[in-house]
Amino acid sequence: MNYQALSAAIKAKKSYLCVGLDTDLAKLPKHLLGDPDPVFAFNKAIIDATAEYAVAYKPNIAFYEAQGPRGWESLQKTLDYIPKDCFTIADAKRGDIGNTSGLYARAFFDKSAAGLDFDAITVSPYMGHDSVQPFLDYPGKWVILLALTSNAGSADFQRQLVDNETQELYETVIEKAQSWATHEQLMFVVGATQAEQIAHVRELAPRHFLLVPGVGAQGGSLEQVSKNGLTPDGGLLVNASRSILYASSGSDFAQAAAAEAKVMQQEMAGYL
Amino acid sequence: MNYQALSAAIKAKKSYLCVGLDTDLAKLPKHLLGDPDPVFAFNKAIIDATAEYAVAYKPNIAFYEAQGPRGWESLQKTLDYIPKDCFTIADAKRGDIGNTSGLYARAFFDKSAAGLDFDAITVSPYMGHDSVQPFLDYPGKWVILLALTSNAGSADFQRQLVDNETQELYETVIEKAQSWATHEQLMFVVGATQAEQIAHVRELAPRHFLLVPGVGAQGGSLEQVSKNGLTPDGGLLVNASRSILYASSGSDFAQAAAAEAKVMQQEMAGYL
């Protein structure tokens, strides 16, 4: 899905909600555990319940990988099930030397390799340009580069002053990466817990989409993120995972997820 | 495998060679392609041929992931086949917020989860302490933190001056991480192409093992790395992947790999 189509979807659905599929076997409603693939059964119900309110889905790859080959199969089925008018993100935080990043790109972008064809993948910038380029070499696919993350450890390195003390490392990441790709192939991760920085990131990268985790369970404010980050084209994908997936632990989990997603979508409609 | 056992293995085998299992289906000898699991058949032959000369094996996870569930099965079989007196490294370069890093740790360290129980995993430092800690929470397991990598892109961020211009980012990573874990649970990745920096890293981290990729296909010098990095306990794991795996593309690939590994081991014996 390209920039124009994503922007159009946001305007049509009046939503920039991304549902994070952090599907944890230990948290699934009991009645699903007898299913041959309880993770997929859960995801299917969540997708059916939330597709009206969400423009993107973001499976968190760790949750699938922790189940070995079976988890990989649940991931394939989940990705195939996501409606084609939704943007799909592999939250994988990969990044390695060129030939290895090329294989990660193949794993997540080329359906003939591992059965997956995500629109986008999250990538760590630590190894620099040649670790990111192989993902950008796939036409029509996106890199979502970690910039300023939502966790406390973001202070350890991302906020170190660099470049003659004039800016922080995450700002250097955002500036340099804009010479690698345009806003039509590159987004940045900025945590909602860093809402005061979002206005600043928006100055540094006026047109790039920002993927914003950390609303909900991690405590970020949707209002502040939206006021600081929205652009005329949308410009935001705000992710919620646990607050939607586990809104109820009972047999009504899908209705509860839909209600939670609807509340977020309606708040978003007000900001658009 | 703990620090003492790894040090003892290095002394017993007179080797600090790590064989990187970057097993690429496209590069396998033709006669293996009819095997039900050609990747495992290749790895098995490589392990048999090199175990006498190597103290560690490092499957590069991208190569397995790019084959989907089948690749994951080849990885499980390969790890099970590596002799128990060898150190095993998942070269995965993971790192995410705490609950997600916890799932990656489970995937690679807990055999009951995804069938894998590596001794160590490579981790990216970009997200800071709380993204690394979940791996350290597994007693007896190791984190190998990216510090100064072997690729050209290492100049983009790792070599930025930080901390009042007194040091580079990779030096800050090495210093901070030493407050997270001792040399008995933490190693650093330093590329062989950065041999002049290895002496400096050795000053910053006198007892920590360094995992050194980039000898061989990437052009680093084993002599310079060894002179700058060895400690009385060993202190180095020098990785070679393509130069060993693809020493011959014919039916003699395993003998050619053994010969290449032996040359490296004998050079290492001279430096120990």
UniProtKB/TrEMBL annotation, chains A, B:
Pathway: Pyrimidine metabolism; UMP biosynthesis via de novo pathway; UMP from orotate: step 2/2
Catalytic reaction equation(s): orotidine 5'-phosphate + H(+) = UMP + CO2
EC number: 4.1.1.23
One Pfam family per UniProt: OMPdecase
Keywords: Decarboxylase, Lyase, Pyrimidine biosynthesis
Catalytic class of the enzyme: lyase
SMART domains linked to this entry: OMPdecase
Active site (catalytic residues): 93
Gene Ontology MF terms in the entry: orotidine-5'-phosphate decarboxylase activity
Family to which the UniProt record says this protein belongs: Belongs to the OMP decarboxylase family. Type 2 subfamily.
PANTHER family in the cross-refs: OROTIDINE 5'-PHOSPHATE DECARBOXYLASE
Entry protein name: Orotidine 5'-phosphate decarboxylase
